[in-house]
Write a structure and sequence with these properties.
There is one protein chain. This protein has about 260 residues and is of the alpha/beta class. The protein has two domains: about 1-85, no CATH class; about 115-250, Rossmann fold, CATH 3.40.50. It contains nine helices and seven strands. The protein has a seven-stranded mixed beta sheet. α2 packs across α4 (about 60-80). It is elongated, with a radius of gyration of 21 Å.
């Protein structure tokens, strides 16, 4: 399961293969009982539900579950499109880019932190008496909005256009937190008490080096699920959620990173 959380595309592919097998088995079982049209729709529905269920069972984030549910139907629509106009597919592509552009550019999928993680980060801020918090790759900004307030200043850094816009609107509605559209590598984290990231294995070495260069002594870099390779975490918080989330805490020692 840990491998699938690190490389969710593998888990998503496995879910689709299992769902395809379920669909084929169901169609063989019902071949003599249903007419071709009913057989097609029954098989497609079963494939969609099976893909979503397997995606959920292996512990992928909820947005992967929705992708698993929709993917078989989307493929079926593409194969049976016939004379459908091309513009809906163009619009869908643009929307996907606006939401998931970071996945292709920086190999950072859109992960959303759950409630247990958010509460753990809030407890961490309170225990340490921190006043400044930054979420690098803040998604829809739920962590930022929860932590902001009571003398704490929370900021989210997000570069995917549609995700950034939605998180800004939610922040304005609730009057909590500040979301900036910026590349995480350009963000100034020198004054932060805690910097949080839920990214992927790919950027972790570079992110740790950025933290060592910029963050003040005693501050924390907190990574959700993905440890920094070759670096022992100062603490690991294991959360009591369904995913068995691990938060890796790296305290900055004030040592300059090697050039």
């Amino acid at each position: 399961m840990t491998a699938f959380r690190s490389y969710p595309i593998l888990g998503a592919a496995l879910a689709q293969l299992v769902a395809l097998a379920v669909m084929i088995a169901l169609r063989l079982l019902l071949a003599g009982l249903l007419d071709p049209s009913a057989l097609f729709w029954t098989g497609l529905a079963a494939q969609c539900v099976a893909a979503a269920a397997v995606t959920r069972l292996i512990g992928l984030p909820v947005w992967w579950v929705w992708i698993g549910l929709a993917f078989p139907a989307a493929m079926s629509l593409a194969f049976h499109a016939g004379e459908l106009p091309a513009w809906p597919f163009g619009v869908a592509f643009v929307l996907l880019y606006l939401v998931f552009s970071n996945t292709a550019r920086e190999r950072v999928p859109l992960y959303l932190s759950n409630r247990q993680t958010t509460e753990a980060l809030l407890a961490m801020m309170r225990q340490r008496g921190g006043s400044r918090f930054t979420d690098l790759g803040s998604g829809l900004g739920g962590v930022v909005r929860r932590i902001d307030g009571e003398g704490r200043v929370a900021r989210g850094v997000e570069s995917a256009p549609m995700v950034w816009l939605l998180s800004v609107l939610l922040s304005k509605i609730e009057g909590r937190g500040r979301i900036v559209r910026q590349d995480i590598w350009a963000a100034d984290i020198s004054a932060e008490d805690i910097v949080y990231a839920f990214l992927s294995p790919e950027p972790m070495p570079a992110l740790y080096e950025k933290a060592r260069r910029e963050m003040k002594p005693g501050s924390l870099l907190v990574s959700n699920s993905f440890a920094v390779p070759g670096v022992e975490a100062d603490e690991i918080w294991e959360l009591p959620d369904r995913r068995k989330t691990r938060l890796y805490l790296y305290e900055m020692k004030g040592e300059a990173a090697p050039a």
